[in-house]
Automatic annotation (TrEMBL):
<feature type="domain" description="TLDc">
    <location>
        <begin position="217"/>
        <end position="385"/>
    </location>
</feature>
<dbReference type="InterPro" id="IPR006571">
    <property type="entry name" value="TLDc_dom"/>
</dbReference>
<dbReference type="InterPro" id="IPR011992">
    <property type="entry name" value="EF-hand-dom_pair"/>
</dbReference>
<protein>
    <submittedName>
        <fullName>TLD domain-containing protein 1 isoform X1</fullName>
    </submittedName>
</protein>
<dbReference type="Pfam" id="PF07534">
    <property type="entry name" value="TLD"/>
</dbReference>
Amino acid sequence: MGNAQSPSTDPRFLTATKAFSQQELEDLRSLFVSLAAQSQSNGKFVSQSVFQAYFGVRGALGERLFQLVAQKRNDEKLTYEDLIISKGTYEKGSRNDIEEFIYQLCDVGGDGDVGRSDLEAVLKSIYETIFSPENDETGAHSQQETLEVFLNAATFSKQIEGRTEKFMSLADFRNWCNLVPSVRKFLGSLLMPPDSGRPSFQVPQLEHPENFSSEQLILRKEYAWHIGGALSQNEAEEWKLLYHSALNGLSFNTFLGNIARGDGPTVLIIKDTEGFIYGGYASQQWERHSDFYGDMKSFLFQLYPQASIFRPTGANNNLQWCAVNFSSDSIPNGIGFGGQPNHFGLFISGNFDQGHTFSCTTFNSPCLSKTSNIRPEVIECWGVQTRGPQSEKLDAVKGTVLERFKEDRNMLKLVGLASSSD
């Protein structure tokens, strides 16, 4: 009886417990007991070092997370009640409750305001948690460049009397989360068990030919992580290089032939002669059409010098464009996303030597480059490999006559010869 704990009288704890099932509470109690034992606290509390080691969040972000979960007491002692209260808000609260908690999480300085230095510290912790740059000789340069592209997507509009620096308001933060969903997913899953496949802790595995150096790829792991944040978890597991202009030449016909071998969504990436990097996620296969097609899963994105995702707004259904061998000026040959014919959100001509990008209501996206008229320097396309019953079935027939027929027919459809109705 001497070790029995008195029932809590904290109304926050009593309210929070109602958000969990009995099994969830038992699991959380078991987790607390285990971590408290590692903290050598006679079962009374969890230390900061044990907390951070278990949840695997590094740097200033890990320290700030512990501080918030421990109710900002600064005694480095996290109790069972603390854990339940925090998880009740952070995981079971309303959307506003959760966003407010994450917003406070980004205030790593703890002064009540989120500045650029706070956000940089958060991004540095995220980078070090996911990419472990200490084992990479180019890590320092790659890290700083990555931090900058994510910081460039942020707005700091909050002014405080007597201070020249501007800060990020809660509205600014919510807008930033929409542009960088990978960051929002990461920050929203920090108290999940580390072995459960936490959202946005994974990086898509990038497969490319062995004779092709990864240094020639536009799509770095950091960029893949950013794009993957807008996708489901199984779509962010494995991507396969289908086309690269350095390997295959700047050829529309070769591009069409290569992507016809894929069977599913693709990620199109362009680096233009101005050094800007951007592209689009095509949720549907590239097929010859005389008009727009696709679904609301497609989106546009920027990678450099700013990282942003632009999802469909629902203003129209002008999502994907793939026109091949048309002779009408109203049906421009090439591939694109959003906007209108000859005024796309993003478009590459059938010659693969030029294109354009305009602001468009389809994705509420801006011009993705320095100027509207673009000249591609490098184009690459990745096939998103999804694992499920459909992909397993396709794997079973791959290499057979049926599979080769399907590839050939896809190519014919692209050039408009598969049937008279195409």
